[in-house]
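Page 47, continued from p. 46.
Same chain as before, 267 aa.
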Amino acid sequence: MPFPVNADNRYFSPAGFKAMLTRALALGYRIVPFRDFEPPDTSPVLLLRHDLDGPLCGARLIAEVEAEVGVRATYFVQTASDFYNLLAPKSRALLRHLVALGHEVGLHYEASRYVGAHGDVSLLSDLRLLEDLTGQPVRSASQHIPIDGDAVALDRYLPHDAYAPRFTEPPMTYISDSLMAWRQATPHDLIDRGASFQLLTHPETWAGNYRDMAEALAGMMNEEIEAIRARYRDVAAYYAALIETRAERDKLFVDARRKTPRTIGGP
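Result:
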């Protein structure tokens, strides 16, 4: 079965995302990340969340759109993704950029990772990793594809579970752009009614002006392939330079090792 085509130009583009946030703000919405959530009172609440399931390039663009209009969101990242290496220099730089823009970074996880005899150890290890990379405590978590696994009780370690009733049940409503196919309502439907809601988006599907999920996956795959080709071209050029200057570099290496090694963290 083909994926549904997005026929509404208010969605799945950077311009549409910005316009949605701007409209909500103009109508009196409080747009907040999980760490700043308070139940709606006289003003409706838009609890803004992003799950980073694919390549990270879209996250930077969407985060900067949010900062431009003056709002903050929660970005849930995986520590063991098939699509990005959280320890790679570009990934670390992105996390620092998100924090610098004022966004919250939380944990996005597979339930199977935190069950069994070593579940607690894996969870604490992942939390320490994220806190080390961001320089901030991790307070919020979201389960990846929760319909595929049992819920994991993380309340001993984190105050905010994205699927907890206070974030998903009245007076809040939960909606997701999963697979670029809205279900119960769209964001503008809820904004029209002045309803408070949690909005989950996947930035990689908003960054490329894609028509449907198949096109999004193809676009992300092509970008990833080209990035890998570019990386190997850079490595080849670097290795060629090493060959040309090998004798000089070998001498510098030997001379440097004859000196007193530096202490880690020292001058």
